Amino acid sequence: MKFFPQTLLRWIVLFLLSCLAGLGMANEQEITDASSDEESTAPERTRRIPVITYHHHLPLELKVAGRYRDGSVTNSVESFREQMAWLRENGYSSLTLAEFEAFLDHGADPAMEKKVLITFDDGYLTTLKFCYPILKECGFTAVVFLITGRQPALPEARFLPEKLQYISLAEMASASDVFEWAGHTHNLHSMKRTASRSDLLSADSAVLNEDVALSRALLGQTRHFCFPFGQYDEQVTERLSQLGFRYFYTTENGWTQPQTGNKLMISRLNISPGMTLAGFARLFRDDV
Fold first, then answer.
1. Virtual CA dihedral for 3, 8, 11, 12, nearest 10 degrees?
2. For the chain, how are helix, strand and coil distributed in percent, rounded to 5?
3. Residue 285 host element (H or E)
4. How far apart are CA 56 and CA 73, in angstroms?
5. In this predicted structure, what is the pLDDT of residue 193?
6. Nearest residue to 228 via CA among 264, 190, 186
7. Radius of gyration (Cα) for the chain, nearest Å?
8. Cα(182)–Cα(195) distance, rounded to whole angstroms?
């Protein structure tokens, strides 16, 4: 039996090792390429925006001593200041309505990270008296849904914490560096016609047409509308859409994501009087 020379045997071993190494690298490359393809084709998670809502605010001392002590929509000014400070310290910035419209209409945008739309329902004078300076100090803007039929022409002569007073028509212009104004009906934010049912839902076509015309005329033809008491149905939403509104704000709880169509429904996060700062912070966890 004849043996191969030692040198030749060494070359054969090296050659076989080289082939095995090359095969391993090829398999590794295939795995890497496959992973890259999966990452590139994986759908991007739908970006969503938190829309928070408030109503009425009083300094804690006035709140606990007065008729709104147990009010379900009367927050303290101190808690509002604390919440706005939390937003600022955690890198949030507020959206204007134009920016929010662009998000709803055009979808995900990396620039929408850490954005929030701040809203106030009804247009109470306390929103202007107490919340306006805090928002301005923090560099935030907000949207106020006004019941235009309750607005006085001129500012109230005296602030009365035991009474629900409203931002006047005359005060709107000077506060527009922080606030944008949107619709909450002119005179249909009540339940005078039917118990437990909003007058907006009970109004006939002529009454609704007149109410919308008055409201939008005072608000620069806004396309944003907040349902009184959170009540709505398909019929009234379609009628409001035909009269010029497109963006509809509900009391349904949740974040809002991009949508299509002529009637866009906005979910919101209600900031209740009993909410702690930790509870407020939890609202901004987008875990889904």
1. -40
2. 45, 20, 35
3. none
4. 6
5. 84
6. 190
7. 29
8. 26
* Strands 56-58 vs 247-253: parallel, antiparallel or unpaired: unpaired
d(CA 175, CA 184): 18
Mean pLDDT in residue range 191-215: 94
Angle, alpha carbons 122-236-243 (nearest 5°): 80
Tens of pLDDT, residues 16-59: 445 444 444 444 444 344 444 434 333 344 589 999 999 999 99
For 227-244, how does the pLDDT look when each residue is reduced to its tens digit (9 = 90+)?
999 999 999 999 999 999
Cβ atoms of residues 111 and 122 within 8 Å:
no
Note the residue count of the chain.
288
How far is residue 94's CA from residue 166's CA, in Å, rounded to a whole number?
Answer: 24
Output DSSP code: residue 114: T
Percentage of residues of the chain with pLDDT beyond 70? 82
Alpha-carbon span 206 to 208, nearest angstrom:
6
Nearest to 95 by CA among 115, 124, 113: 115
Instruction: Report how far apart, in Å, the C-alpha atoms of 143 and of each of 66, 83, 190 are.
Output: 27, 17, 21
Listing DSSP states for 176-237 in one string gives TTTEEEEES-SS--S-SSBTTB-HHHH--HHHHHHHHHHHHHHTTS--EEE-GGG---HHHH
Residue listed under structure tokens 């247009």: 123
CB atoms within 10 A of CB 38: 9
What is the bridge-based pairing of β-strands 247-253 and 224-226? parallel
* Residue 145: band (very low, low, confident or very high) from pLDDT cuts 50, 70, 90: very high
Phi, psi at residue 70, to the nearest 5°?
-110, 20
pLDDT at 18: 52
